[in-house]
Amino acid sequence: MGLLKRLREDIKSAREHDPAARSHAEIVLVYSGLHAIWSHRLAKRMWRYGPLKTPARVLSQVTRGLTGIEIHPGATIGRRFFIDHGMGVVIGETAEIGDDVMLYQGVTLGGTSLEQTKRHPTLRDGVTVGAGAKVLGPVEIGEESAIGANAVVVKSAPAHSVLVGVPAKDRKRREEEHKPLVDPATYALDPALFI
């Protein structure tokens, strides 16, 4: 996917996830979650090239200072990822995030080990994580799951789960709680949205 097409997809995803967004121009100018994601993509490219690991970490820390969002350059992030409000979000080095995932402010995708192994969570496609939630360790959260605000997740959960509490307990989503995965075909650029 080309750079311009990817940027347009990100902007459209932000617009769809945030009912307060009034225009594409506003999103590009003031959405810190989007700025953090764009910076992460550059840092990730640098991280993959061995001699640039330190500059990649420097870029991620500068971005943290500007946006309040810390994404380690080693983290793997899918398409149409959206961070709403963003302040205080931390995403660890071995975290894996699928497509169409949404995080709210204060979310931590953190580790529980000091070993150089997979130590951060995996969020599958369509997962939503509520404000202040902590997902800790190499757990896997199945697609289309929802994690409630301030939940502390330390165990894996299957697809379509709802996780709430401290420590979080999971239950299957009820039929009325299901939401379809975002249809990528809806990500065509509409020039009218820039107005």
TrEMBL record:
Entry keywords, A to Z: Acyltransferase, Amino-acid biosynthesis, Cysteine biosynthesis, Transferase
Top-level taxon of the source organism: Bacteria
Bilayer-crossing regions: none
The protein's annotated pathway: Amino-acid biosynthesis; L-cysteine biosynthesis; L-cysteine from L-serine: step 1/2
GO biological process: cysteine biosynthetic process from serine
GO molecular function ontology, one term from the record: serine O-acetyltransferase activity
Reaction equation(s) it catalyzes: L-serine + acetyl-CoA = O-acetyl-L-serine + CoA
Gene Ontology annotations for the cellular component aspect, listed alphabetically: cytoplasm
Pfam families reported for this sequence: Hexapep
Enzyme Commission number(s) of this protein: 2.3.1.30
Similarity comment text for this entry: Belongs to the transferase hexapeptide repeat family.
NCBIfam families, alphabetized: cysE (TIGR01172), EPS_EpsC (NF041874)
Protein name (Swiss-Prot/TrEMBL): Serine acetyltransferase
Organism this protein belongs to: Nesterenkonia cremea
Species classification: Bacteria, Bacillati, Actinomycetota, Actinomycetes, Micrococcales
